[in-house]
Amino acid sequence: MNKLILLMSRRFLFIFFPFFSAEILSSQKRFPSHRPILVSHNKFGTELVYSMNRSAANSGIFPSMTITDALSIQSNCLILEKSMLREQFLEQMLIKELRKFSPWISKKTNNSFILNITGCSHLFNGEKQMAKKISLALKIIGLSSSIGIGDSPSSAMAAAIFVDNHSMILE
Length: 171
Prior knowledge:
Blueprint lengths: L11 E5 L3 H10 L7 E7 L2 E7 L1 H5 L8 H7 L4 E4 L2 H15 L6 E5 L2 E5 L10 H15 L4 E5 L2 H10 L4 E3 L2
Parallel strand pairs: 2-4, 7-8
Antiparallel strand pairs: 1-6, 1-7, 2-3, 5-6
């Protein structure tokens, strides 16, 4: 008897949260979304931008910039202090939510997760529909995200970070 062996290529879904810390803090304190918000952290005695909201990013502020430089670009920024406890709590909540889509989840950086979705996407009518459902669930929580899917974790990450649309699949 010949045994048919099907080789399934592995597929990965990468979720990048460009404004993670700022969105956590601003949603809990109910600040208006149009106001530039910076999340600061101290590194070697220097106050740096850890995260910011979309409004601050659109004005040219980026992570690791000094707070002084950021304020010279946008003087009406609201500055909040980084809260590791809030972030850890939300990360645990996110992992619990993402387990609905795949049992294989890994935190890549402070603002990203990778899911091995091999064999899971058909449960959601395909990869695009799965990505849309994840994006909607994150939007309901109040988080902006960029999602990419690919054959390797690196290609999924590239699709999420370097492609303009919110859900890109690399074949």
